[in-house]
UniProtKB/TrEMBL annotation:
Any single biological process term in GO: lipid metabolic process
GO-annotated cellular components: membrane
Lineage: superkingdom: Bacteria
Polar residues bias spans: 1-10
Pfam families xrefs: FA_desaturase
Biased composition (Basic and acidic residues): 16-28, 425-436
Native species: Celeribacter indicus
One GO molecular-function entry: oxidoreductase activity, acting on paired donors, with oxidation of a pair of donors resulting in the reduction of molecular oxygen to two molecules of water
Stretches assigned to coiled coil: none
Identification of the protein by name: Fatty acid desaturase
Length: 436
Protein backbone atom coordinates (compact mmCIF):
# COMPACT_ATOMS: atom_id res chain seq x y z
CA UNK A 1 0.00 0.00 0.00
CA UNK A 2 1.46 3.33 -1.04
CA UNK A 3 1.55 6.56 0.85
CA UNK A 4 -0.41 8.55 -1.70
CA UNK A 5 -3.63 6.74 -0.90
CA UNK A 6 -3.40 7.89 2.70
CA UNK A 7 -2.19 11.48 2.27
CA UNK A 8 -4.40 14.27 3.52
CA UNK A 9 -5.34 15.99 0.27
CA UNK A 10 -7.22 18.74 2.09
CA UNK A 11 -4.02 20.28 3.36
CA UNK A 12 -2.20 22.84 1.17
CA UNK A 13 1.10 21.74 -0.23
CA UNK A 14 4.20 23.61 0.86
CA UNK A 15 5.27 26.26 -1.62
CA UNK A 16 8.45 25.76 -3.63
CA UNK A 17 11.50 27.90 -3.03
CA UNK A 18 11.14 31.46 -4.27
CA UNK A 19 13.76 33.01 -6.52
CA UNK A 20 15.70 35.27 -4.18
CA UNK A 21 18.21 36.40 -6.78
CA UNK A 22 16.03 37.50 -9.68
CA UNK A 23 17.42 41.05 -9.46
CA UNK A 24 20.96 40.05 -8.66
CA UNK A 25 23.54 42.87 -8.80
CA UNK A 26 26.74 42.62 -10.79
CA UNK A 27 30.20 42.54 -9.26
CA UNK A 28 30.81 46.26 -9.95
CA UNK A 29 27.51 47.82 -8.93
CA UNK A 30 24.23 47.72 -10.80
CA UNK A 31 24.20 45.61 -13.93
CA UNK A 32 22.86 46.95 -17.17
CA UNK A 33 19.34 46.02 -18.23
CA UNK A 34 20.54 43.28 -20.57
CA UNK A 35 22.75 41.69 -17.91
CA UNK A 36 19.96 41.93 -15.37
CA UNK A 37 17.54 40.24 -17.74
CA UNK A 38 20.09 37.57 -18.58
CA UNK A 39 20.84 36.97 -14.92
CA UNK A 40 17.16 36.83 -14.05
CA UNK A 41 16.52 34.40 -16.88
CA UNK A 42 19.38 32.15 -15.77
CA UNK A 43 18.18 32.19 -12.19
CA UNK A 44 14.63 31.47 -13.30
CA UNK A 45 15.82 28.49 -15.33
CA UNK A 46 17.84 27.25 -12.35
CA UNK A 47 14.89 27.74 -10.02
CA UNK A 48 12.55 25.99 -12.43
CA UNK A 49 14.96 23.07 -12.65
CA UNK A 50 15.20 22.89 -8.88
CA UNK A 51 11.41 23.03 -8.51
CA UNK A 52 11.07 20.33 -11.13
CA UNK A 53 13.50 18.12 -9.22
CA UNK A 54 11.57 18.69 -5.99
CA UNK A 55 8.31 17.90 -7.76
CA UNK A 56 9.76 14.72 -9.23
CA UNK A 57 11.05 13.67 -5.81
CA UNK A 58 7.68 14.39 -4.16
CA UNK A 59 5.90 12.44 -6.89
CA UNK A 60 8.23 9.50 -6.39
CA UNK A 61 7.91 9.63 -2.61
CA UNK A 62 4.11 9.68 -2.83
CA UNK A 63 4.42 6.11 -4.09
CA UNK A 64 6.71 5.04 -1.25
CA UNK A 65 5.62 2.11 0.86
CA UNK A 66 6.19 2.22 4.63
CA UNK A 67 9.23 -0.01 4.09
CA UNK A 68 10.66 2.54 1.67
CA UNK A 69 10.18 5.25 4.26
CA UNK A 70 11.87 3.19 6.94
CA UNK A 71 14.98 2.94 4.78
CA UNK A 72 14.87 6.65 3.90
CA UNK A 73 14.51 7.74 7.52
CA UNK A 74 17.50 5.72 8.69
CA UNK A 75 19.69 8.70 7.74
CA UNK A 76 18.16 10.76 10.57
CA UNK A 77 18.78 8.30 13.40
CA UNK A 78 22.12 9.63 14.58
CA UNK A 79 21.83 11.82 17.72
CA UNK A 80 23.90 14.99 18.11
CA UNK A 81 25.34 14.82 21.67
CA UNK A 82 25.87 18.57 22.06
CA UNK A 83 22.30 19.24 20.92
CA UNK A 84 20.94 16.62 23.33
CA UNK A 85 22.84 18.18 26.25
CA UNK A 86 21.63 21.65 25.25
CA UNK A 87 17.97 20.58 25.01
CA UNK A 88 18.17 18.78 28.35
CA UNK A 89 19.78 21.80 30.02
CA UNK A 90 17.26 24.38 28.77
CA UNK A 91 14.47 22.17 30.08
CA UNK A 92 15.77 20.88 33.41
CA UNK A 93 17.25 24.20 34.57
CA UNK A 94 14.00 26.21 34.13
CA UNK A 95 12.04 23.37 35.72
CA UNK A 96 14.17 23.44 38.87
CA UNK A 97 14.29 27.25 38.94
CA UNK A 98 10.53 27.60 38.57
CA UNK A 99 10.06 25.04 41.32
CA UNK A 100 12.16 27.23 43.63
CA UNK A 101 10.30 30.39 42.63
CA UNK A 102 6.99 28.61 43.11
CA UNK A 103 8.05 27.50 46.57
CA UNK A 104 8.87 31.12 47.45
CA UNK A 105 5.61 32.37 45.88
CA UNK A 106 3.64 30.13 48.21
CA UNK A 107 4.58 32.45 51.08
CA UNK A 108 2.93 35.33 49.21
CA UNK A 109 -0.15 33.83 47.60
CA UNK A 110 -1.51 30.32 47.26
CA UNK A 111 -3.20 31.28 43.99
CA UNK A 112 0.09 32.55 42.55
CA UNK A 113 1.83 29.35 43.61
CA UNK A 114 -0.80 27.24 41.85
CA UNK A 115 -0.51 29.32 38.66
CA UNK A 116 3.28 28.90 38.62
CA UNK A 117 2.89 25.19 39.34
CA UNK A 118 0.60 24.81 36.34
CA UNK A 119 3.10 26.69 34.17
CA UNK A 120 5.89 24.39 35.34
CA UNK A 121 3.86 21.42 34.13
CA UNK A 122 4.99 22.35 30.61
CA UNK A 123 8.62 21.66 31.51
CA UNK A 124 7.65 18.40 33.22
CA UNK A 125 5.83 17.24 30.08
CA UNK A 126 8.95 17.99 28.06
CA UNK A 127 11.10 16.08 30.56
CA UNK A 128 8.80 13.10 30.17
CA UNK A 129 9.37 13.24 26.42
CA UNK A 130 13.11 13.12 27.09
CA UNK A 131 12.53 10.03 29.20
CA UNK A 132 10.58 8.66 26.25
CA UNK A 133 13.52 9.25 23.89
CA UNK A 134 15.90 7.66 26.40
CA UNK A 135 13.69 4.58 26.33
CA UNK A 136 14.21 4.35 22.58
CA UNK A 137 17.95 4.96 22.92
CA UNK A 138 17.71 8.01 20.67
CA UNK A 139 18.81 10.87 22.95
CA UNK A 140 22.47 9.81 23.18
CA UNK A 141 24.63 7.25 21.42
CA UNK A 142 25.34 5.42 24.66
CA UNK A 143 22.55 3.07 25.71
CA UNK A 144 23.79 3.13 29.30
CA UNK A 145 23.77 6.93 29.41
CA UNK A 146 20.23 7.00 28.02
CA UNK A 147 19.09 4.49 30.62
CA UNK A 148 20.49 6.37 33.60
CA UNK A 149 19.20 9.74 32.44
CA UNK A 150 15.82 8.10 31.92
CA UNK A 151 15.87 6.64 35.43
CA UNK A 152 16.65 10.02 37.00
CA UNK A 153 13.90 11.75 35.02
CA UNK A 154 11.57 8.91 36.02
CA UNK A 155 11.72 10.12 39.62
CA UNK A 156 10.46 13.54 38.50
CA UNK A 157 7.70 12.07 36.32
CA UNK A 158 6.70 9.36 38.85
CA UNK A 159 7.36 6.78 36.13
CA UNK A 160 9.73 3.83 36.73
CA UNK A 161 11.92 3.96 33.67
CA UNK A 162 12.62 0.27 33.01
CA UNK A 163 8.96 -0.65 33.47
CA UNK A 164 7.81 2.07 31.12
CA UNK A 165 10.50 1.24 28.57
CA UNK A 166 9.32 -2.37 28.42
CA UNK A 167 5.61 -1.59 28.13
CA UNK A 168 6.20 1.18 25.60
CA UNK A 169 8.25 -1.16 23.42
CA UNK A 170 5.29 -3.56 23.42
CA UNK A 171 3.07 -0.67 22.38
CA UNK A 172 5.29 -0.03 19.36
CA UNK A 173 5.27 -3.74 18.52
CA UNK A 174 1.47 -4.07 18.52
CA UNK A 175 0.05 -0.66 17.66
CA UNK A 176 -3.00 -0.81 15.41
CA UNK A 177 -3.50 -4.57 15.92
CA UNK A 178 -7.05 -5.40 16.98
CA UNK A 179 -6.04 -8.85 18.20
CA UNK A 180 -2.87 -8.01 20.10
CA UNK A 181 -3.34 -4.68 21.77
CA UNK A 182 -3.50 -3.74 25.40
CA UNK A 183 -0.08 -2.26 26.07
CA UNK A 184 0.05 1.45 25.47
CA UNK A 185 -3.36 1.71 23.84
CA UNK A 186 -6.68 3.05 25.04
CA UNK A 187 -9.41 0.42 25.31
CA UNK A 188 -11.30 0.40 22.01
CA UNK A 189 -14.10 -1.74 20.61
CA UNK A 190 -15.28 -2.34 17.08
CA UNK A 191 -18.88 -1.51 16.20
CA UNK A 192 -19.80 -5.19 16.02
CA UNK A 193 -18.19 -5.93 19.39
CA UNK A 194 -20.12 -3.09 20.96
CA UNK A 195 -23.35 -4.40 19.42
CA UNK A 196 -22.77 -7.82 20.95
CA UNK A 197 -22.18 -6.54 24.47
CA UNK A 198 -24.68 -6.62 27.29
CA UNK A 199 -26.21 -3.42 28.60
CA UNK A 200 -23.85 -3.46 31.57
CA UNK A 201 -20.87 -4.00 29.29
CA UNK A 202 -21.86 -1.05 27.12
CA UNK A 203 -22.24 1.16 30.15
CA UNK A 204 -18.78 0.17 31.34
CA UNK A 205 -17.26 0.88 27.94
CA UNK A 206 -18.95 4.27 27.77
CA UNK A 207 -17.51 5.07 31.18
CA UNK A 208 -13.91 4.27 30.31
CA UNK A 209 -14.21 6.18 27.01
CA UNK A 210 -15.78 9.24 28.64
CA UNK A 211 -13.40 12.23 28.29
CA UNK A 212 -13.83 13.18 31.94
CA UNK A 213 -12.77 9.68 32.92
CA UNK A 214 -9.97 9.40 30.34
CA UNK A 215 -8.42 12.77 31.10
CA UNK A 216 -9.38 13.09 34.75
CA UNK A 217 -9.36 9.72 36.49
CA UNK A 218 -6.97 7.78 34.26
CA UNK A 219 -4.00 10.21 34.46
CA UNK A 220 -4.21 10.20 38.26
CA UNK A 221 -4.57 6.43 38.34
CA UNK A 222 -1.67 5.88 35.94
CA UNK A 223 0.97 8.13 37.45
CA UNK A 224 0.06 8.07 41.13
CA UNK A 225 -1.14 4.48 41.57
CA UNK A 226 -0.41 2.14 38.66
CA UNK A 227 3.22 3.16 38.31
CA UNK A 228 3.94 2.21 41.91
CA UNK A 229 3.61 -1.56 41.33
CA UNK A 230 4.47 -3.35 38.05
CA UNK A 231 1.82 -6.04 38.51
CA UNK A 232 1.47 -6.39 34.73
CA UNK A 233 5.12 -7.51 34.57
CA UNK A 234 5.08 -9.70 37.67
CA UNK A 235 6.31 -12.72 35.70
CA UNK A 236 8.87 -10.85 33.63
CA UNK A 237 11.77 -10.84 36.07
CA UNK A 238 13.19 -8.90 38.98
CA UNK A 239 14.43 -5.92 36.92
CA UNK A 240 11.01 -4.32 36.67
CA UNK A 241 10.30 -4.72 40.37
CA UNK A 242 13.69 -3.20 41.14
CA UNK A 243 12.91 -0.32 38.79
CA UNK A 244 9.54 0.36 40.41
CA UNK A 245 10.73 -0.05 43.99
CA UNK A 246 13.87 2.02 43.40
CA UNK A 247 11.82 4.80 41.82
CA UNK A 248 9.30 4.63 44.66
CA UNK A 249 12.08 4.92 47.23
CA UNK A 250 13.57 7.96 45.49
CA UNK A 251 10.13 9.58 45.19
CA UNK A 252 9.36 8.87 48.84
CA UNK A 253 12.63 10.41 50.04
CA UNK A 254 12.05 13.45 47.82
CA UNK A 255 8.53 14.00 49.12
CA UNK A 256 9.63 13.57 52.73
CA UNK A 257 12.31 16.21 52.16
CA UNK A 258 9.79 18.57 50.57
CA UNK A 259 7.36 18.19 53.47
CA UNK A 260 10.15 18.52 56.05
CA UNK A 261 11.49 21.74 54.49
CA UNK A 262 8.28 23.37 53.28
CA UNK A 263 5.39 21.60 54.92
CA UNK A 264 2.30 20.04 53.40
CA UNK A 265 1.38 23.22 51.53
CA UNK A 266 4.27 22.71 49.13
CA UNK A 267 3.05 19.20 48.40
CA UNK A 268 -0.57 20.28 47.89
CA UNK A 269 -0.13 23.55 46.00
CA UNK A 270 3.18 23.10 44.16
CA UNK A 271 3.90 19.41 43.60
CA UNK A 272 0.39 18.04 42.97
CA UNK A 273 -0.85 20.73 40.51
CA UNK A 274 2.33 20.45 38.45
CA UNK A 275 2.22 16.67 38.37
CA UNK A 276 -1.48 16.33 37.65
CA UNK A 277 -1.60 18.88 34.80
CA UNK A 278 1.48 17.30 33.24
CA UNK A 279 -0.19 13.88 33.47
CA UNK A 280 -3.39 15.15 31.84
CA UNK A 281 -1.44 16.91 29.08
CA UNK A 282 0.66 13.85 28.38
CA UNK A 283 -2.46 11.71 28.31
CA UNK A 284 -4.02 13.95 25.69
CA UNK A 285 -0.92 13.95 23.48
CA UNK A 286 -0.70 10.18 23.48
CA UNK A 287 -4.45 9.80 22.96
CA UNK A 288 -4.71 11.84 19.76
CA UNK A 289 -1.69 10.13 18.24
CA UNK A 290 -3.65 6.94 17.58
CA UNK A 291 -7.30 7.78 18.28
CA UNK A 292 -8.31 9.85 15.26
CA UNK A 293 -10.92 9.38 12.56
CA UNK A 294 -8.85 7.93 9.72
CA UNK A 295 -6.43 5.94 11.83
CA UNK A 296 -5.75 2.29 11.06
CA UNK A 297 -6.73 -0.83 12.99
CA UNK A 298 -6.44 -4.31 11.51
CA UNK A 299 -6.87 -7.88 12.65
CA UNK A 300 -3.77 -10.00 12.91
CA UNK A 301 -3.98 -11.51 9.43
CA UNK A 302 -4.07 -8.12 7.71
CA UNK A 303 -1.84 -6.24 10.14
CA UNK A 304 1.66 -5.05 9.26
CA UNK A 305 3.82 -3.18 11.74
CA UNK A 306 5.12 -0.63 9.23
CA UNK A 307 1.68 0.07 7.74
CA UNK A 308 0.32 0.49 11.25
CA UNK A 309 3.17 2.84 12.15
CA UNK A 310 2.59 5.17 9.21
CA UNK A 311 -1.17 5.01 8.80
CA UNK A 312 -2.22 4.40 12.40
CA UNK A 313 -0.30 7.34 13.88
CA UNK A 314 -1.08 11.01 13.41
CA UNK A 315 0.98 14.04 12.49
CA UNK A 316 -0.24 16.40 15.19
CA UNK A 317 0.65 19.76 13.61
CA UNK A 318 0.86 21.94 16.72
CA UNK A 319 1.78 25.61 17.15
CA UNK A 320 5.48 26.21 17.79
CA UNK A 321 5.32 26.54 21.58
CA UNK A 322 3.36 23.30 21.90
CA UNK A 323 5.77 21.51 19.58
CA UNK A 324 8.58 22.62 21.89
CA UNK A 325 6.75 21.53 25.05
CA UNK A 326 5.88 18.15 23.55
CA UNK A 327 9.36 17.67 22.03
CA UNK A 328 7.87 17.03 18.58
CA UNK A 329 6.01 13.94 19.77
CA UNK A 330 3.20 15.06 17.46
CA UNK A 331 5.27 13.87 14.48
CA UNK A 332 4.16 10.48 15.62
CA UNK A 333 3.86 8.66 12.32
CA UNK A 334 7.55 9.30 11.66
CA UNK A 335 8.41 8.34 15.23
CA UNK A 336 6.68 4.97 14.86
CA UNK A 337 8.42 4.33 11.55
CA UNK A 338 11.85 5.15 12.98
CA UNK A 339 11.78 5.40 16.76
CA UNK A 340 15.56 5.91 16.99
CA UNK A 341 15.31 9.40 15.47
CA UNK A 342 15.99 12.02 18.20
CA UNK A 343 13.04 14.31 18.82
CA UNK A 344 14.93 17.40 17.63
CA UNK A 345 15.47 15.82 14.19
CA UNK A 346 11.80 15.07 13.55
CA UNK A 347 11.26 18.64 12.35
CA UNK A 348 14.13 18.08 9.93
CA UNK A 349 12.33 15.04 8.52
CA UNK A 350 9.14 17.04 7.99
CA UNK A 351 11.03 19.88 6.29
CA UNK A 352 12.84 17.50 3.95
CA UNK A 353 9.83 15.35 3.04
CA UNK A 354 6.66 17.30 2.35
CA UNK A 355 4.74 14.11 1.64
CA UNK A 356 5.23 13.07 5.26
CA UNK A 357 4.31 16.57 6.43
CA UNK A 358 0.86 16.18 4.85
CA UNK A 359 0.26 12.55 5.83
CA UNK A 360 -2.29 12.05 8.63
CA UNK A 361 -1.98 15.75 9.41
CA UNK A 362 -4.21 17.06 12.18
CA UNK A 363 -4.29 20.57 13.62
CA UNK A 364 -4.86 21.47 17.25
CA UNK A 365 -8.43 22.58 16.52
CA UNK A 366 -9.19 19.41 14.55
CA UNK A 367 -7.84 17.23 17.34
CA UNK A 368 -10.59 18.18 19.78
CA UNK A 369 -13.04 16.08 17.80
CA UNK A 370 -11.00 12.99 18.66
CA UNK A 371 -12.41 13.04 22.19
CA UNK A 372 -15.80 12.07 20.71
CA UNK A 373 -14.56 9.06 18.72
CA UNK A 374 -15.00 5.71 20.44
CA UNK A 375 -15.87 2.84 18.06
CA UNK A 376 -13.84 1.39 15.20
CA UNK A 377 -15.94 0.62 12.12
CA UNK A 378 -14.39 -2.23 10.15
CA UNK A 379 -16.56 -1.47 7.11
CA UNK A 380 -15.68 2.18 6.53
CA UNK A 381 -12.28 1.98 8.31
CA UNK A 382 -13.11 4.97 10.46
CA UNK A 383 -13.24 5.72 14.15
CA UNK A 384 -16.81 6.77 14.95
CA UNK A 385 -18.61 8.54 17.73
CA UNK A 386 -21.45 6.75 19.49
CA UNK A 387 -23.88 9.12 17.74
CA UNK A 388 -22.49 8.30 14.29
CA UNK A 389 -22.75 4.61 15.02
CA UNK A 390 -26.37 5.02 16.14
CA UNK A 391 -27.21 6.83 12.91
CA UNK A 392 -26.02 3.81 11.03
CA UNK A 393 -22.96 5.35 9.35
CA UNK A 394 -21.18 2.09 10.02
CA UNK A 395 -23.86 0.18 8.17
CA UNK A 396 -25.14 -1.42 11.38
CA UNK A 397 -27.69 0.60 13.34
CA UNK A 398 -26.95 0.68 17.05
CA UNK A 399 -29.80 1.70 19.29
CA UNK A 400 -29.35 3.29 22.69
CA UNK A 401 -30.77 0.12 24.24
CA UNK A 402 -28.96 -3.16 23.83
CA UNK A 403 -30.52 -5.11 20.90
CA UNK A 404 -32.06 -8.52 21.51
CA UNK A 405 -29.25 -10.88 22.39
CA UNK A 406 -29.57 -14.57 23.21
CA UNK A 407 -29.64 -15.12 26.93
CA UNK A 408 -26.44 -17.12 26.95
CA UNK A 409 -24.60 -14.20 25.37
CA UNK A 410 -25.91 -11.80 28.00
CA UNK A 411 -24.36 -13.98 30.66
CA UNK A 412 -21.07 -14.08 28.81
CA UNK A 413 -18.07 -11.76 29.08
CA UNK A 414 -18.73 -8.06 29.37
CA UNK A 415 -15.73 -7.20 27.21
CA UNK A 416 -13.89 -8.99 24.38
CA UNK A 417 -11.09 -11.31 25.39
CA UNK A 418 -8.34 -8.82 24.62
CA UNK A 419 -9.70 -6.59 27.42
CA UNK A 420 -9.21 -9.43 29.85
CA UNK A 421 -5.62 -10.28 28.97
CA UNK A 422 -6.17 -12.97 26.35
CA UNK A 423 -3.04 -11.79 24.54
CA UNK A 424 -1.04 -10.19 27.33
CA UNK A 425 -0.14 -12.30 30.39
CA UNK A 426 -1.01 -10.41 33.53
CA UNK A 427 -3.17 -7.84 31.72
CA UNK A 428 -6.28 -9.17 33.39
CA UNK A 429 -5.00 -7.82 36.71
CA UNK A 430 -5.12 -4.25 35.45
CA UNK A 431 -7.59 -3.58 32.61
CA UNK A 432 -6.44 0.02 32.17
CA UNK A 433 -2.74 -0.82 31.89
CA UNK A 434 -0.87 0.99 30.68
CA UNK A 435 -2.21 4.19 29.29
CA UNK A 436 1.07 5.56 27.97
Amino acid sequence: MTLSSYSDNKQPQRRGRQDATANKRGEHGNSGPDLQDAGSHADAVKSAGHSSAETDRASKQSQFTPSDWTRTLAAYRQPIPSRSVFELTITLAPFVALWAVDWWALSISTALAIILALANAAFLVRLFMFQHDCGHGSLFRSRRLCDWIGRVIGVLTLTPYDVWRKTHALHHATTGNLDHWGVGDMPILTVSEYQDMSRVGRAGYRLIRNPLFLFGVVPFYTFFLQNRLPVHLMRSGWRYWLSAMGTNLAIGLSLMTIIWLGGWDVLLFVFLPTMFLAAVTGMWFFYVQHQFEDTSWQHDGDWNIQDAALHGSSHYALPGILRWISANIGVHHVHHLASRIPFYRLDEVIRDHDVLAQTKRMTLWESFRCARLHLWDEQSHRLLSFAEARRGISGALISGIAPPIPRERRSGPRLPSRFRGGHRPGFETDPLHPVL
